[in-house]
From TrEMBL:
Record: active site: E272
Name listed for the protein in its UniProt record: NAD-aldehyde dehydrogenase
GO MF annotations, alphabetized: aldehyde dehydrogenase [NAD(P)+] activity
Organism of derivation: Fistulina hepatica ATCC 64428
Aldehyde dehydrogenase domain location: 35-495
Family: Belongs to the aldehyde dehydrogenase family.
Keywords: Oxidoreductase
Database matches in CDD domains: ALDH_F1-2_Ald2-like
Length: 507
């Protein structure tokens, strides 16, 4: 079996970044046990290969799960205090903060997003998320329940669920959201996307560093196995010794994961899936602000966002004025190489995603929608897609119904509040929704009526680590973030304690 070099050297802005090329198991980077297959990490700006990474096999997943199980049963799980877990999580957050610039450059090169966005938003949010859950690690408590004061009581224990498979998406590779699992004392086998494995491997190095004396992450707490989704993701979903799988990605893949979980050991599943999120602009709104948020809603991360506000509906009385402001905002957006400080949005992540998005754009044209900006391919290298806005849309159009995952916006009109709500809810998805209005009563009515797990009022696409996030309908099940996320990684045990009641038989 041919061996890869231990590290790939990748040129960033500030220095050459060394990235491990092996699989991360038991705090060591190792070769596959049975495969010489590799994953090629590509720069979406240049279309050139950055590095070749070991591709994990089904057998590698077995080894990683066995390592995670052994650690859960011996040095993690119920064998470590919440205080110790908190200390390790804080140390990991400190190391990520220390290396934020380098991680951002690596993310830019592999994913395409601008360095400043990766550093100040993705990585900054990840640091806050880890620190937030570090604060929870010693506060996961049960209840004492009165049954009969003179004879018996009951109490609950919130126990770690066990070994967790974390299947990470390519659009936010560094936002691992493993912090609640670690805070709850679970062990992890992480499968990063085959498109963006580099930052996950680099973060695995920091797990080792965070575990140096006097504190330590025991080997096997976090394991990272880059692999194809059809290999590693499928193996985790069907594994009989995995207790929970968390997945972020498409609804189609989410269904497969649920099916595999059901057919194997009925493992717990949380799914953060697709969206076709509506964004309503009422006539009383601050149109300047509404246009800013609408632009951010569809252009942030080049539209590669599950909650992208890809359907904007505007009240007829302010439609023309709003569109003028929105177009001026979109025209100011610089789409280019994320290594430049001027860039607000980078390329799409891959050739496959590029072809998919352009397929939707051509579909919109063919079905009769009007392109008011964008819609033309560049002739230079890179998987770039400039912001594209369609008007004169119909509810049956493909660009209106299906998730595109690119900077493509459909804009429609409505007359009444009731019509706006009906248009917004006319989707199989239910991840996010937004509305803009200066009428407080309207804000309450509409936010209550919108069928989405998250509703933004007079803003869009802003998350907070202490607020739960997740979807309805075909956008998924379970919640990330906030105290609610801890429920995904704990199992509640009820203990009934009799200290005074005498039993008799027969009854």
């Amino acid at each position: 079996m041919s061996q890869l070099p231990a590290y790939a050297e990748i040129k960033g802005l500030t220095k050459t970044i060394k990235v491990p090329t092996g699989l991360f198991i038991n705090n060591q980077f190792v070769s596959s046990v049975d495969s010489s297959e590799t994953i090629e990490a590509v720069n979406p700006v240049t279309e050139e290969v950055l590095a070749s990474i070991s591709a994990g096999s089904v057998q590698d997943i077995d080894v990683a799960v066995a390592a995670a199980r052994k650690t859960f049963n011996t040095t993690w799980g119920k064998n470590i205090t919440g205080f110790e877990r908190a200390r390790l999580l804080h140390k990991l957050a400190d190391l990520i903060e220390r290396d934020a610039q380098e991680l951002a450059e690596l993310e830019c090169l592999n994913n395409g997003k601008p360095v400043k966005v990766a550093r100040d938003f993705d990585i900054g949010d990840s640091i806050q998320c880890i620190r937030y859950y570090a604060g929870w690690a010693d506060k996961i408590v049960g209840q004492t329940v009165e049954v009969h004061n003179k004879a018996k009581l009951a109490f609950t224990q919130h126990e770690p669920i066990g070994v967790c498979g974390q299947i990470i998406p390519w659009n936010y590779p560094i936002n691992m959201y493993v912090a609640p699992a670690l805070a709850a004392s679970c062990t992890i086998v992480m499968k990063p996307s085959e498109l963006t494995p580099l930052t996950a491997l680099k973060l695995s190095e920091l797990v080792v560093e965070a575990g140096q004396v006097p504190s330590f992450f025991p080997p096997g707490v976090v394991n990272t196995i880059p692999s194809l989704g059809s290999v590693g993701g499928a193996a985790l979903s069907a594994h009989l010794d995995v207790d929970k799988v968390a997945f972020t990605g498409s609804t189609v893949t989410g269904r497969k994961i649920m099916e595999a979980a059901a057919k194997s050991n009925l493992k717990k599943v949380s799914l953060e899936l697709g969206g076709k999120s509506p964004h309503l602009i009422f006539e009383s709104a601050d149109l300047e602000q509404a246009a800013c948020w609408a632009a951010l809603g569809i252009l942030y991360n080049s539209g590669q966002d599950c909650t992208a506000g890809s359907r904007v509906y505007v009240q007829e009385s302010v439609y023309d004025k709003f569109m003028g402001i929105l177009l001026s905002k979109v025209k100011e957006t610089v789409v280019g190489d994320g290594l430049s400080d001027e860039t607000a949005a980078g390329p799409l992540v891959s050739k496959v995603q590029y072809d998919r998005v352009w397929g939707f754009i051509e579909s919109g044209k063919q079905e009769g929608a009007t392109v008011v900006i964008g819609g033309e391919k560049r002739t230079t290298k890179g998987y770039f897609c400039d912001p594209t806005i369609f008007t004169n849309i119909r509810p049956d159009m493909k660009i209106v119904k299906e998730e595109i995952f690119g900077p493509v916006l459909s804009v429609g009109k409505f007359k009444t509040e009731e019509e706006a709500i009906a248009l917004a809810n006319d989707t199989t998805y239910g991840l996010g929704a937004g509305l803009h209005s200066s009428n407080a009563s309207q804000c309450m009515r509409v936010s209550s009526a919108l069928e989405a797990g998250t509703v933004w009022v007079n803003q869009y696409n802003m998350l907070a680590n202490n607020v739960p996030f997740g979807g309805k309908k075909q956008s998924g099940i379970g919640r990330e973030l906030g105290s609610y996320a801890l429920e995904e990684y704990t199992s509640v045990k009820a203990v009934h304690w009799n200290f005074g009641e005498k039993g008799s038989w027969p009854l």
